[in-house]
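Late entry, evening session. Most of the bench is empty. Finally got around to the prediction I had been postponing all week. Sequence below, unchanged from the version circulated by S.P.
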Amino acid sequence: MFQSPIEINSSTAQICRSKCNLLFYYRGSRCYIVRSGRTLLLNYDGGSHVVYNGDIYELERVSFSSPASHIIDKSKGAMECQLYHKAPDTGKILILSIILEVNEASTLSKAFFDNWTYLIPTSEDKEVVVNMSSEWNIFSALPEIKSFFSYDGSLINQPCTEGVIWIVMSKFANISDQSYKKILSVIGDNARQVQPTNKRTVLFNPNSTNKNNLNQSNPIV
């Protein structure tokens, strides 16, 4: 069984470089905040995607787990932001995971979350749609260094379907204490327990070139 999430040991990950090439094509979007019971989702306008090993995966939505679902070298973040993508031709799913730590460092990631978490509905089963500035872009939620791990896994919610590509950013991004508490007040502790690796290969890409660290799409004006 190839289930997710897993604990990642960087010392055993295989360097892949061009064999796991990732490019970002994220655009600006309206902010769609969907609260349903203990579930919190951000839906995203069409037109944003990543290209992984030459295949396009379109961004559909963003969800959250607390504490972080994945563990890297025994370190576990306070929260995890998961970007769900789907290939338009095959339906294959790619989930990009951003592990978050709570601090007040002035970063693009902190600003991204602070710009919408105060809008989270206080009542259940409600959706809020907000026009955001052109600078508000999911790319800002990524850590400054874009190195990542990749492995074959599953959805982390029922039915836990396998065949999912996971991209786990190796560096943590940050979120303010206020934004963290706003999200936590909705989702609570909802992270699935770590699953056995079962001798799966975990790949690592330093992603150090300028092309791989940039957002290839211009913001919507």
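Two things to note before I forget:
The radius of gyration is 16 Å.
The first strand starts at residue 7 and ends at 8.
Will write this up properly tomorrow.
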